């Protein structure tokens, strides 16, 4: 079920634009591109490593991370990342929504809509017999727990929750700062963002390179692609719902799936204080919890994508050994 809007890459990856739940969606793929009709390659169609991003949910941020996982596993497993609905700039042949009625029928850009969006993506693009390794980042971890709760028949081998924002987001140091902005003041920011988006792409790219010196160069195009009024508005709207909806930790779902879950907490993560790590480790003493010892920041994709990928490869290798 591949999209017609496919951008071929020279590094064994491809970028697809498609509609999912009627909203523009970007999918970055390494390895098998169609799990329903896989080609005869080294890549197994029985396993999919699927990345669920944080917010903003731009798949380009994860390119180095994904490519390192793909290569480290000997190019044997497909590695995909699916954007959040509306967090991408669609090609000229597509609109942000397939039909305006999409916005009337459901809140596809809200947090619950993004969860349903991922369930729909799995239903439409991933056969039910494919084994899944789900890798979530930030709010992507909350989404993964919801996927496992809402569709317990998913063949999840393992879920890796990296820098998980799965509880009390508004009460975190970063949440206390951004909750008023996202929930009450975000409309004020739309005008300067709109004016910034009027600049030529070459100028925006130069500004991004200057502002993000020292970060992974692969993330620069992702930053530039994000700078559209619609993308920023959708990301901020989703963020406002995160502050209101991500409250109590879902202990029931965690307990039911504890043997499949691995959590990786940051030591200096202002979205997820270390106390949250100690709390969950105390409540689930048999769980697989890790506290970062490498000084990696919450937005690891900016400068530590390869390092995180090396850890992910180590964690999943045993689960993939017999597949």
How would you characterize this protein structure?
The protein has 323 residues and is α/β, with parallel strands linked by helices. The protein has helices spanning 63-72, 101-105, 111-125, 139-150, 173-185, 190-197, 201-211, 219-226, 229-245, 251-256, 274-283, 305-320, and strands at residues 5-8, 13-20, 23-30, 44-52, 77-82, 131-137, 156-162, 261-265, 288-291. It contains 12 helices and 9 strands. The chain has a 9-stranded mixed beta sheet with strand order 1-2-3-5-4-6-7-8-9, with helices on both faces. Helix 1 packs parallel to helix 12 (305-320). The two termini are 24 Å apart. The mean pLDDT is 91.
Describe the protein's topology.
Elements: E1 5-8, E2 13-20, E3 23-30, E4 44-52, H1 63-72, E5 77-82, H2 101-105, H3 111-125, E6 131-137, H4 139-150, E7 156-162, H5 173-185, H6 190-197, H7 201-211, H8 219-226, H9 229-245, H10 251-256, E8 261-265, H11 274-283, E9 288-291, H12 305-320
Parallel strand pairs: 4-5, 4-6, 6-7, 7-8, 8-9
Antiparallel strand pairs: 1-2, 2-3, 3-5
Termini, distance in Å?
24 Å
Mean pLDDT: 91
Shape: globular
Low-confidence stretches: none
Percentage beta strand: 15-25%
By DSSP (H or I, 4+ residues per run), the number of helices equals 12
**Spatial order of strands in the largest sheet:** 1-2-3-5-4-6-7-8-9
Estimated helix fraction: 40-55%
Radius of gyration: 19 Å
Order of helices and strands: EEEEHEHHEHEHHHHHHEHEH
Total strands: 9
The main pleated sheet reads as:
9 strands, mixed
Structural class: alpha/beta
What attributes characterize this protein structure?
323 residues; alpha/beta; nine-stranded mixed β-sheet; 12 helices; 41% helix; globular
């Amino acid at each position: 079920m591949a999209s017609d809007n496919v951008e071929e890459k020279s590094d064994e990856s491809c970028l697809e634009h498609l509609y999912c739940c009627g909203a523009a969606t970007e999918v970055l793929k390494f390895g098998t591109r169609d799990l329903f009709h896989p080609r005869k390659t080294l890549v197994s169609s029985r396993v999919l490593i699927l990345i669920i991003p944080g917010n903003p949910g731009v798949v380009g941020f994860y390119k180095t991370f994904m490519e390192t996982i793909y290569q480290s596993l000997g190019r044997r497993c497909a590695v995909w990342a699916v954007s959040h609905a509306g967090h991408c700039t669609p090609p000229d042949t597509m609109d942000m929504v397939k039909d305006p009625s999409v916005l009337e029928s459901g809140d596809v850009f809200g947090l619950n809509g993004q969860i349903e969006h991922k369930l729909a993506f799995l239903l439409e693009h991933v056969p039910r017999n494919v084994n899944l390794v789900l890798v979530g980042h930030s709010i992507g971890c909350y989404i993964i727990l919801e996927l496992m709760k809402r569709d317990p028949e998913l063949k999840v081998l393992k879920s890796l929750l990296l820098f998980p924002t799965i509880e009390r987001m508004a009460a975190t140091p970063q949440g206390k700062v951004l909750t008023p902005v996202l929930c009450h003041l975000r409309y004020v920011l739309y005008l300067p963002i709109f004016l910034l988006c009027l600049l030529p792409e070459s100028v925006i790219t130069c500004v991004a390179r200057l502002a993000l010196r020292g970060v992974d160069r692969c993330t620069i195009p992702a930053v530039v692609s994000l700078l559209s009024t619609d993308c920023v508005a959708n990301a901020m709207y989703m963020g406002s719902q995160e502050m209101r909806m991500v409250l109590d930790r879902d202990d029931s779902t965690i307990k039911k799936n504890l043997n499949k879950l691995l959590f990786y907490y940051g030591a200096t993560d202002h979205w997820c204080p270390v106390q949250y790590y100690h709390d969950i480790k105390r409540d689930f003493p048999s769980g697989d919890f890790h506290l970062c010892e490498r000084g990696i920041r919450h937005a690891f994709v900016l400068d530590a994508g390869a390092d995180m990928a090396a850890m992910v490869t180590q964690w999943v290798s045993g689960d993939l050994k017999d597949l």
